[in-house]
């Protein structure tokens, strides 16, 4: 025989399951979120604007999600992007494909955090990344320093 307390716990857990199922992002919603994020990316990096208010504006496009859920989804998309970018840049690893990679790369591809302008090495010296665009008139910086003996 089931007590009323156990019955209410079961009902509450089924509501949580229903809530979790309804809080999943569809492909269409995720693509819209990425587009809205891309549109507001400059504002999010500008200190004049509060990121919470920008995420609140973005969340108005989604009736099912709160501002916190929108912010969390963007954070997780960025984490996935960085993880895949890191994996695909290493040799010996299988290439990972992701349906949102191209869109996220348009946003974060030029970010020095994801593609550094240069790399320092104790054996090779300073090496400019082939992707970086240098506007200075400096000489060839990637010259290997001579070792002192």
TrEMBL record:
* Gene3D superfamilies xref list: Homeodomain-like
Q: Which stretches are tagged as biased composition: Polar residues?
A: 115-143
* Family matches, as Pfam families: Myb_DNA-bind_4
The entry's protein name is Uncharacterized protein LOC115877420
- Gene expressing this chain: LOC115877420
Q: Where is this region: Disordered?
A: 111-149
Tell me where in this chain the Myb/SANT-like DNA-binding domain is found: 23-107
């Amino acid at each position: 025989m089931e007590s009323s307390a156990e019955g209410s716990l079961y009902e509450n857990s089924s509501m949580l399951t229903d809530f979790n199922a309804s809080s999943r992002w569809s492909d269409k919603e995720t693509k819209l979120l990425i587009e809205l994020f891309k549109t507001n990316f400059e504002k999010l990096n500008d200190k004049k604007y509060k990121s919470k208010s920008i995420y609140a504006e973005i969340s108005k496009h989604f009736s099912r999600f709160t501002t916190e859920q929108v912010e969390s989804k963007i954070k997780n998309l960025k984490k996935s992007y960085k993880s895949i970018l890191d994996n695909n840049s290493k040799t010996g690893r299988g290439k990972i494909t992701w349906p949102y990679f191209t869109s996220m790369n348009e946003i974060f591809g030029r970010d020095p955090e994801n593609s550094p302008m240069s790399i320092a090495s104790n054996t090779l010296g300073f090496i400019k990344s082939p992707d970086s665009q240098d506007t200075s008139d400096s000489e060839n910086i990637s010259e290997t320093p001579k070792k002192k003996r």
